[in-house]
Write a structure and sequence with these properties.
- It is a single chain.
- This protein is α/β, with parallel strands linked by helices.
- The strands form five sheets. A five-stranded mixed sheet has the order 3-2-1-4-7, sandwiched between helices. A five-stranded parallel sheet has the order 16-17-18-15-19.
- Helix 30 links the parallel strand 17 and strand 18 (718-723).
- The longest helix is centred in the C-terminal third of the chain and has 28 residues, at 559-586.
- The termini are far apart.
């Protein structure tokens, strides 16, 4: 408690006189009176004084002191500091200039120097660092380099000098390296750890780009190879702050010693290789570590053996190999490409991003920091290295088949089946191309039985017999395929064969007559014409020419009618391929849904006139939306997919997605910088089908992303939205009123609203099945 507080307390609570307070506190009576008077003038009584701290009480009682003004002019210390960095500039010179400028108002030389040194001390605050034994190793490159002369060409390159030092003992390591790349950093660091004979807990380099992929004062990110090295040797990385050499003073001092005691001694020598330079550095490094300390007992070597060596952790049994890293994406054939060779990975990773970690002899495939595949490096370009465990089960089974095994299987079914299998194997450019057709026959055997499969093979020549008269045009044409799926079904689903098996020979004989006539006409079309059709990609015309049924049926027609049929076949072919591509790219959840199969039961309350109007796809051309709502299982997704498929039939680009998945994709796009590109892709779609809207709460960022998607489409592109919640409740689900109004205006305005009712179709289908 301060004297002022004690005086006020005794005067107030003790009811003592000024003399008695002075005697109790062993101070003069006048001092007590002065303090009591100052408190009264400040308006302080004991009740108010008791609530103040000692400093606040003193500030209230005593007036603040006034600084005595001096006629002397203070020097410009910043100017002095900058000028002293110039060569040959001294404080004496600067004082004379200062005195010449201010004359009698200037400080004398001694006061001038004292005041500048006191100011300068405020800039150079250093912390005494204590380094526990075995804790840290500091790493850096020296600023000086050593010239290396190529003995063959005379070219001169500069060798870089790497320096490492242990914190507790200052035990130093130095070596030469061609450059300062990340591989050089890693190799030199490994050599330093081997020179130390153990592992410290921390490595402290600075933050060049070769070490830190993203230099930062607080959270630097190490280069991948350097980080792998730290993980392999189980040491932590603690880079010094950028432009802060005092974070690693040990190695800064070691660099100075290496430059003075090693490089300076080698300045007159000529070196022709890095190995020769390192051989010259080694004995000088030993001498440096053996030089005695000036202010301590012993040397770096003895301090290392006493302090650091006993606590360093042991090195791994094997030295780390250098890796290179490369991103790759798994192809649809579950292979990745490296230097022209293809290596397999587990088929579950198809389409995913992986990382290749390679050495000179091995390739490792990493996914989510886990090794999923490992192969020896193969130099042959264009070849494949496939491990059976990476293949799907059906692909492994496919590899087990051979032509002899397939023929042996067909013989067990019957002679007609054997003839079909032999024909498939003999009339392909490679027998492996026929495996899929033969495996399809096996599936038909499991479904329909051997007798019906044999009958179908016998009748095959009557319905669609592939061209056997022109073997040169057979490889690569569509005529050597098994009949279409619909035709196969018509063969095999018939309960009673129209032609018994015993008459299959007669049917084949009758068909051979047509084949010979067709062969004569086909021979008139030379191979050059067929190759030209292939080069022009007129696959529809080529298929029509190679189709016996089409050619025989139109043989009596005039040329212009036959040409018209060929052109129409080409148009149909391209329309079919385009439709298949559009439906495939649409990713419809129910790809088989169609307008013709709509369930019109009364309980659903579907308006036929509205649905018929939608089937014309005018709503797509006018950029209008369709809102489908209803309970779970009532068929919203099926009807939405049927409408989208109908749009694809008319050539519109369609895409299906669930609302949660769409919002998640946009959230990820924000992170990888592809958000604008993804919005542009969605804006170009003719029909965007968003299913299961409003199933889960929506965040503010998702709400903003949804508005961006809908705003790009309103009035120009069509949108189908499906939801279990009625559209009038979407405003509540959206939350924030202003954003909800904007989104609802873009969704509801001019949209077709279809509310499906009735019981769940899934329950009815399950009941019917039971």
């Amino acid at each position: 408690m301060s004297k002022q507080r004690q005086i006020l307390q005794l005067l107030h609570d003790g009811h003592l006189s000024t003399r008695e307070v002075a005697a109790a506190l062993h101070i003069s009576k006048s001092s007590v009176g002065d303090i009591a008077k100052a408190a009264r003038l400040a308006g302080l009584d004991w009740e108010a004084a008791s609530k103040l701290s000692d400093d606040e009480l003193s500030a209230r009682i005593y007036r603040p002191g006034t600084t005595r003004r001096s006629s002397l002019i203070e020097p410009d210390y910043n100017h002095l500091y900058r000028e002293l960095k110039r060569a040959d500039v001294t404080l004496q010179l600067l004082w004379e200039e200062y005195q010449g400028q201010h004359g009698s108002n200037a400080y004398k030389y001694s006061a001038f120097c004292d005041r500048f040194r006191n100011w300068n001390k405020t800039l150079k605050l250093s912390m005494r660092q204590i380094h526990p034994a075995g804790e840290r190793a500091f790493l850096d490159f020296a600023g000086h380099t050593v010239p290396i002369i190529d003995a063959h060409t005379g070219e001169i390159t500069q060798a870089q000098i790497f320096v490492a030092v242990l914190g507790a003992s200052s035990y130093t390591f130095a070596c030469a390296t061609p450059a300062q790349k990340v591989q050089d950093w890693v190799l030199c660091t490994i050599a330093a750890l081997e020179h130390f004979g153990g592992l410290p807990r921390l490595l402290v380099p600075d933050q060049p780009r070769t070490v830190s992929a993203r230099p930062d004062r607080y959270e630097p990110t190490a280069q991948r190879l350097f980080a792998e090295m730290c993980a392999y040797y189980n040491v932590a990385l603690l880079p010094a702050r950028p432009a802060k050499p005092r974070d690693k003073p040990k190695v800064e001092a070691a660099v100075l010693l290496v430059e003075r005691w090693i490089l300076a001694r080698l300045r007159k020598r000529t070196f022709f290789s890095i190995a020769e330079l390192n051989a010259a550095i080694a004995p000088l490094l030993t001498d440096l570590n053996s030089r005695p300390f000036k202010k301590l007992e012993g040397c770096r070597r003895s301090a290392y053996e006493e302090l650091d060596l006993p606590v360093l952790r042991p090195l791994p049994a094997q030295r780390m190999q250098l890796y290179t890293f490369k991103p790759a994406r798994v192809n649809v054939d579950y292979h990745i490409q490296y230097l022209g060779h293809y290596y397999s990975v587990p088929y579950q990773l198809v389409g995913q991003q992986v990382e290749l970690r390679t050495t000179t002899t091995t390739l490792e495939v990493m996914h989510n920091n886990l090794r999923v595949a490992m192969h020896p490096i193969k130099p042959r370009k264009g070849a494949f290295t496939t491990m059976p465990e990476h293949m799907p089960d059906n692909h492994r089974e496919h590899l087990q088949w051979s032509p002899d095994k397939l023929i042996s299987w067909a013989q067990k079914v019957g002679k007609a089946c054997e003839m079909v299998v032999r024909w498939q194997l003999e009339h392909r450019a490679h027998p492996e191309q026929a495996y899929r057709s033969c495996l399809g026959l096996m599936r038909l055997l499991r479904t329909y039985g051997g007798d019906r499969l044999e009958a179908a093979c016998a009748r095959r020549s009557c319905h669609r017999i592939t061209s056997q008269s022109n073997p040169s045009s057979r490889a690569g044409s569509t005529s050597c395929q098994w009949p279409s799926r619909r035709l196969r079904a018509s063969y095999l689903c018939t309960r009673t064969c129209a032609v018994p098996i015993t008459t299959s020979t007669e049917a084949a004989s009758a068909a051979l007559t047509n084949i010979s006539q067709h062969s004569q006409r086909i021979q008139m079309i030379d191979n050059q014409t067929i190759e030209q059709l292939r080069s022009l990609r007129l696959d529809g015309m080529l298929a029509a020419l190679n189709d016996p049924a089409t050619t025989i049926a139109t043989s009596t027609l005039p040329f212009d009618q036959r040409l018209s049929l060929l052109v129409q076949r080409e148009v149909d072919w391209r329309d079919g391929k385009r439709l298949a591509r559009l439906i495939k790219n649409a990713h419809l959840k129910v790809s088989t849904a169609s307008m013709e199969d709509i369930n019109w039961r009364a309980s659903r309350e579907l308006d036929r006139s509205v649905i018929s109007n939608l089937a014309s796809c005018d709503w797509v051309r006018h950029g209008r939306s369709i809102l489908l709502t209803g309970a779970t299982g009532c068929g919203k997704t099926w009807l939405a997919c049927a409408l989208a498929r109908q749009a694809a039939r008319q050539g519109f680009c369609v895409y299906y997605t669930r609302a949660s998945r769409l919002l998640q994709e946009l959230h990820v796009a924000h992170g990888d910088g592809s958000f604008t590109k993804r919005l542009a892709q969605l804006a170009r779609l003719d029909v965007l089908l968003i299913d299961d809207l409003a199933l889960s709460p929506i965040t503010a960022s998702e709400r903003s992303d949804l508005l961006e998607v809908l705003d790009d489409r309103v009035g120009t592109r069509a949108t189908i939205i499906g939801s279990q919640i009625p559209h009038r409740d979407w405003h509540t689900w959206l939350g924030e009123p202003t954003m909800a109004d904007a989104i609802m205006d873009r969704i509801v305005h001019g949209a077709y609203k279809i509310a499906l009712k009735g019981k769940s179709l899934r329950d009815e289908d399950e009941g019917a099945a039971q």
